[in-house]
Amino acid sequence: MSRPQSEVPAPAADLYDVINRRRDVRGEFTGEPVPDEVLRRVLTAAHRAPSVGMSQPWDFVLVRDEDTRRRFREHVRSERDVFAAGLEGERAETFSRIKVEGVVESSLGVVVTYDADRGGPAVLGRHAIADAGLYSVCLAIQNLWLAATAEGLGVGWVSFYREEFLRDLLGIPSGVRPVAWLCLGPVRELAETPDLERHGWRSRMPLEDVLHHETYGSRPAR
Ligand SMILES: Cc1cc2nc3c(=O)[nH]c(=O)nc-3n(C[C@H](O)[C@H](O)[C@H](O)COP(=O)(O)O)c2cc1C
After folding, report:
1. How many CB atoms are located within 10 Å of the residue 145 CB?
2. Residue 170 C-alpha to ligand 1 middle, in angstroms?
């Protein structure tokens, strides 16, 4: 039964605080271990995410092995070079100063995967939008990210990799897509400003720039 309007609780300030404090972390990991019970809470939060047709199409591979992480970091470095090779002038100069991963410095990697066959063959709600399965995995990642922030941990999403490489490295079956390598662990601090903004790569846009009224492109005069 839904609550009468008068009983709707006030906004949970703590949640907004966590959303505002969440940062993508690359350089601030301490490398200290994450206590088992904390890791369990963070993974449980991820597993509580909504999913299309309750398919829960995610899996979490915990990667602590240093050799595996070094091999992944080498691959990320070569993909960083591929991206850098396509840049010129100021973009190339700015990108050269940006760190894009903390794979070895973090405490562990959490690789989140997407299994499109989970919950099938008839996934309720996915018949018209195949990507709805992938959206569900991203929600699990966001839950993990916010829960980690609430626990005082940092998370860094690394996407400078080829799916085939990561599949081979971790023995992920061919039908399962790796969606993210998340660097996780205690941090010295969570920066107030996103790294990309600090380095002058790109800034957060004002909310008004992405708001439309009734039809796409209709904006009130400012
Ligand atoms: C799908 C996705 C992939 C990302 N991949 C990388 C990455 O490979 N390396 C990196 O340093 N940051 C990566 N990020 C982090 C973004 O750069 C970061 O979220 C953005 O700059 C805003 O900063 P904030 O998360 O600290 O607010 C990724 C974020 C998302 C959502």
Report:
1. 26
2. 22
Q: What is the pLDDT of residues 128-186, one digit of tens each?
A: 999 999 999 999 999 999 999 999 999 999 999 999 999 999 999 999 999 999 999 99
Element at 45 (helix H, strand E):
helix 36-47
Q: Which atom of ligand 1 is nearest to the CA of 138?
A: 1
Which ligand 1 atom minimizes the distance to the CA of 26? Answer: 11
Residues facing 187 on adjacent strands: 29
At a CB cut-off of 8 Å and minimum separation 6, what does 16 contact? none
Residue 154 and residue 25 in contact, taking contact as beta carbons nearer than 8 Å: yes
Residue 107's Cβ-count burial label (10 Å; 0-12, 13-18, 19+) is buried
∠ CA 98-103-104, nearest 5°, is 115
Phi, psi of 110 (to 5 degrees): -115, 110
